Amino acid sequence: MNVKFLVLGFFLFVGLVSCSETGITLLSPNGKLVVEIDHKINGNWIYRFLIDGEVVIDSSRIGYQLNNGKCLPEKDWSVSNKKILSANNEWHPVWGKRSIVPNRYNQLTMVLESQRKNSSINRLIVEFRLYDDGLAFRYRIPEGGTETAICELTQFNYVSDPIAWFYNGENANYGPVKLSKVDTERPSNVTLQVTDDLFLNMHEACLSEGDPLRLVSCEGEHSFGVASSAGVFGELKQGYTSAWRVVMVGKTPGALVDSHLLELLNPEPDPKMDFSWVKPGMAVWDWRIDGAEWEGFNYTMSYDSWIRMVDFAAEQGFKYLVLDANWYGPEFELESDPIKGDKAKDVQRLLAYGKEKGIGIWLYLNDVGGRQFPIEETLKQYGEWGVVGVKYGFMKGSPEEKNLWTQKITKLCAENHLLVDFHDNPVHPYGQMRTWPNAVTREFCHAQLDAHRVFTPRTFCTAVFVNMVAGPIDMNNGMFDLRQGNTTRVDEKQPVPSTLVSEAARTLIVFSGVTILPDIPEYYKKYPELLDFLSAQKMPWKESRTLAGKIGEYIVMMRQSADNVYLIGAATNENGRTIDLPLNFLDEGIFEADVVEDGDDAHYLTNRETLKIMKKQVMNTDTLKLTLAPGGGACVKIVKNRTK
């Protein structure tokens, strides 16, 4: 590992930071990003953010407003100390978008101090960190008493009027909309298009306490502020550390998708904890198979169907079976015991069978059962049974309470060697998978099969450039039963607005530590070329790269599997398109490419289940032409030619 750290007290490192009478300037390692900190603007402490010499965020306040009318900091505050830290090393994640992640940044730590000493908090530490792909800053209280803050003063005053797309819960993303037209509070995160070749994403990282970030904008202005609950931000006291406020930077929206900035702003795992047992992979699922029929067999959420799913997973090299709600009784009833209820004995039989087959079993746990019964005992019992993961649903409480409960469950799961997937309006991801690699995914999106009222090809091609920037998401793509009329499913009978090829491609495009497949084995076996594409998704990924894309229109994703197979998934919105795809990401040599495209007359509304297959030899100097039907996609598997 190449590691370089520089800590300079009052000294200045040429090309890294500079000081003048009007403020302090910090540069990113490549010098293309600059942050300027000043306190000469109306007496307020502000920062400016420049990209390639152009001011993008101008004169934006930092700090907090207290309920006694004072601010942290105020105009009479000064810099009593500053340190410069330069880091250049590598992060080797347990799993993720790639196996090696460069961690290169410059950091300025300023100690701001009051001259009047007229508050119980008279010192504030502000840390600014610049990577080559973004800005982050946070606040720390090193000492003092306790003060109540009315609000966080942090601003993001954009010079231009960027186009915005917001995360919007279990609904279609809000946008595209000009920032000046946003007149209400919105949840984080948001993707912004400033120019044709400048895209930003605003979010937060390392949220240890307090409310998850929400952004507020005033209509007619190009500015974001940090929203407060009920007009009160919360308590500030010794030891307080805010989340990092983050602005990611990319020349394309795909560069934001590929960024690791949020994870890198979280600490590495406790060295005392062993996460070698964390294994990402593909999973089958019992929720959407319920009611499906095949040659006289009726799939239900019960033992006989579970056995068929385990056998199929073992045949295909998938890792997991996920059991969803009601296995221990009606999930919202207080009496449903998550250890002893309903099908608990069948689950223990299934766990033994899964162990024989090499398939791990996930168990669903509703927040009602998670709180009604001692959560420590429940998760300990699951670990002792040999359960591999917990899907936690419908968490209640305020956003701050949910975040703390999420942290507790994640830690308890780690202690019991359990992966965890949070569902149903979870707390947004903020890079915690670096500290807790067992936090493999969450439903920070509108899952495809929950309600087709908003899930369309366009919403998919938007969410992957907004929601997925925040972290791994569980979208439940990969339905192969795409019949035109109502299906035999119990819970969701509507046809899926997609094509077979797009459904397979989406399983690769969506980043998640567990990719959950929703259909029965027989529908996958009907299309062996696409099933082969699913089975080839061997994680952890060695490399991932968004090769092309436009928000709301299309995306092309490449991932290199653990066994060096190159996989490409492409998906488009309601418009068909042809994509010329350079293969310059390949190594030297000759490769065999298996290409699956939509059929010539395919359409996501009228002819979903048609496809065409092509095999060809390719090299890294070639360009592959992909044809996508309206609402469709393409799947490509590329393997090194082993013949001499």
Structural account:
The strands form eight sheets. The chain has a ten-stranded antiparallel beta sheet with strand order 1-9-10-11-12-23-19-18-15-16. A seven-stranded parallel beta sheet has the order 31-30-29-28-27-24-32. Strands 33-34-35-40-37-38 form a six-stranded antiparallel beta sheet. It is an alpha+beta fold and 644 residues long.
Computed Rg: 25 Å
Query: In angstroms, what separates the terminal alpha carbons?
Result: 36 Å
**Beta-strand content bin:** 35-45%
Structural class: alpha+beta
Largest sheet: 10 strands, antiparallel
What is the overall shape?
globular
Summarize this entry quickly.
With 644 residues, this protein is of the alpha+beta class.
Write the layout of secondary structure elements.
Blueprint: E1 5-8, E2 17-20, E3 23-27, E4 33-41, E5 44-51, E6 54-61, E7 64-66, E8 71-72, E9 78-91, E10 101-113, E11 123-131, E12 134-140, E13 147-152, E14 155-157, E15 163-166, E16 174-178, E17 185-187, E18 190-195, E19 198-205, E20 214-217, E21 223-226, E22 234-236, E23 244-250, H1 253-257, H2 261-264, E24 281-285, E25 293-294, E26 297-298, H3 303-316, E27 320-323, H4 344-357, E28 360-366, H5 367-372, H6 375-385, E29 389-393, H7 399-415, E30 419-422, E31 439-442, H8 457-463, H9 467-470, H10 500-509, E32 514-517, H11 521-525, H12 528-535, E33 543-550, E34 554-560, E35 566-572, E36 577-582, E37 591-598, E38 611-618, E39 623-628, E40 633-640
Helix pairs in contact: 3-4, 6-7, 10-12
